[in-house]
Amino acid sequence: MAEQESPAEPEAGHAQARAILTVEERISHIVGMMEAFEWERGRSAPKLAAEWGLATATVEKYSAEASRRCTADADEVRRDITLGGRKLLKGAIEEGDRAGFRQVAEILASVSGAKAADKIQVGALDAATPGKAREVMSELFGGVTPETKGDADPER
Fold first, then answer.
1. Does the residue 16 lie in any domain?
2. In which element (H, E) is residue 51 found?
3. Domain that holds residue 97
4. pTM, full prediction
């Protein structure tokens, strides 16, 4: 009777997965998967759980920690963008790329907080004037205008 060969790929993956023994190594393995965009939510945890001989919930806990390690905080992102931006600025200067320099400089100014705040106006206020305000108030509350100011009761 001929021996049946099992597919080499699952055994190789299984052996590699079984070789990862510690929790830290397993979390690091998942971090590597996430950084390589190989982690599939809802699919990877059950697959690794089967390979590692663990409960899916355990691997999901490992993946939560791995996700925390992969997710940068605001200061870290600001630092990375600033460092990368400085390299790009230097390259733009060396190549005489004014447009590239301007684009990178705008991003760096925004990230670092050096950029002036953008003025934002809300729809109806764009065309607001004192005359329009008087007109609206007059329609809503009657003829209240600077000319009729003396008619108002000073006791109120």
1. yes
2. helix 44-52
3. 74-112
4. 0.43
Same domain, residue pair 49 and 80 = no
Euclidean distance between CA atoms 140 and 151, whole angstroms:
18
One domain, residues 84 and 49 = no
Q: How far is residue 154's CA from residue 84's CA, in Å, rounded to a whole number?
A: 66
- In a domain, residue 150? The reply is no
pLDDT in tens, the chain (156 residues): 444 443 334 444 445 556 667 999 999 999 999 999 999 999 999 999 999 999 999 999 999 999 998 887 778 888 888 899 999 999 999 999 999 999 999 988 888 777 777 776 666 666 778 888 788 788 888 765 555 555 555 554
The rounded distance, in Å, linking the Cα atoms of 125 and 89 is 39
- The residues, any chain, with a CB within 8 Å of residue 34's CB and separated by 6 or more, are 63, 66, 67, 70
Determine contact, residues 111/74, Cβ cutoff 8 Å.
Answer: no
Query: Does 62 lie in the same domain as 18?
Result: yes
